[in-house]
Specification:
This protein is an all-beta fold. It has one helix and 28 strands. Strands 1-28-27-26 form a four-stranded antiparallel sheet, with no helix packed on it. The mean pLDDT is 88. WD repeats lie at residues 2-43, 44-85, 139-180, 181-222, 279-309.
Length: 323
């Protein structure tokens, strides 16, 4: 159990090797941890508001944070120094490194008369970032505001998840919409790619998570629960253990005393859409969930401000679906 935040967790993320785990919360200090023993490496100090989203470059050199203090910062992971601070007009909602790590796509909030925007900047020189986006497109008023953002394969397009439940694929060069996937009925809380980048999973307030084909934005599977899903992740071991894990729970304000420690991560079979396991533990809804890149465990961050890192036992690997 990792205790490093004063407020609820907003996002957690492993680096590519899985030896580091990054966590952001509604307090202004993102943390970096060793995932093997839960030791805290340090914090990234500089923001003055909640940190909505984070991402790590593939080589674990750079770390990007988007915050409610209307700025996006790029950090040196090793030293914790802030390499650049990019001021925006509104809060930064989603941030994501491109596969190559040379660009960052980010989305901004719709507030104070400003529209929600999707922007892409070049970060090849992290100490001297040109704040002028290489691609800029207005998300609102035509669509609801964008909350999360992901890069498609080969950095050719980006995919955004929106407040009204649609996901939109944008051409990286022109800023035009390529495809719209409209299956969810309520806000999309989280989007994560599969390990190979061919599928993505969305978690929505409409109590479902859905699996999509990234190339066509075709909805492949739906995982149904009885309460809002805040986060969903796909295992990297798709061939042997095709599982997805969902985290959620009712809104923090609707929680009654009887549900102490009952907020569970739910495991579903990726193909059969069938729930086969639950892991209890959090004292509030799970806000962010992530598989370890080796597929041998997962981590979850909750409204209670704790990050829990789990390792699967032998029963997980021996469990086989009958079909």
């Amino acid at each position: 159990m990792l205790q490093g935040h004063e407020r609820s967790i907003t996002q957690i993320k492993f680096n590519r090797e899985g030896d580091l785990l990054f966590s952001a919360s509604k307090d202004p200090k993102p943390n970096c941890w060793y995932s093997i023993n839960g030791e805290r490496l340090g914090t990234y100090d500089g923001h003055s508001g909640a940190v909505w989203s984070i991402d790590v470059k593939w080589d674990s050199t750079l770390f990007v944070t988007g915050s409610a203090d209307q700025s996006m910062r790029i950090w040196d992971i090793e030293t914790g120094t802030s390499l650049s601070n990019l001021e925006m007009k509104t809060s930064v909602r989603g941030v994501n490194f491109s596969y190559s790590g040379t660009m960052i796509a980010y989305t901004t909030d719709k507030m104070m008369g400003h529209n929600s925007e999707l922007n892409i900047i070049d970060v090849r020189d992290p100490k001297d970032v040109d704040p002028t986006p290489i691609m800029k497109t207005q998300v609102t008023p035509n669509n609801a505001k964008a909350l999360s953002v992901l890069w498609g394969p080969l950095d050719e397009y980006v995919i955004t998840g929106h407040e009204d439940g649609c996901i939109i694929k944008w051409d990286m060069r022109t800023g035009k919409k390529i495809e719209i996937g409209q299956e969810h009925t309520k806000q999309i809380k989280d989007m994560q790619l599969s390990h190979d980048g061919l599928m993505l999973i969305t978690a929505s307030k409409d109590t479902t998570a859905r699996l999509w084909d990234v190339g066509t934005l075709e909805c492949l599977k739906m995982y149904k629960t009885d309460r809002p899903v805040n986060s969903a992740a796909i295992t990297p071991l798709l061939d042997t253990y095709p599982h997805v894990v969902l985290g959620g729970g009712q809104e923090a304000m609707d929680v009654t005393q009887s549900r102490i420690g009952k907020f569970d991560a739910r495991f579903f079979h990726l193909v059969f859409e069938e729930e086969f396991a639950r892991v209890k533990g959090h004292f509030g809804p799970i806000n962010s969930i992530a598989f370890h890149p080796n597929g041998k465990g997962y981590a979850s961050g909750g409204e209670d401000g704790y990050v829990r890192v789990h390792v699967f036992d032998d029963a997980y690997y021996q469990f086989k679906f009958d079909f």
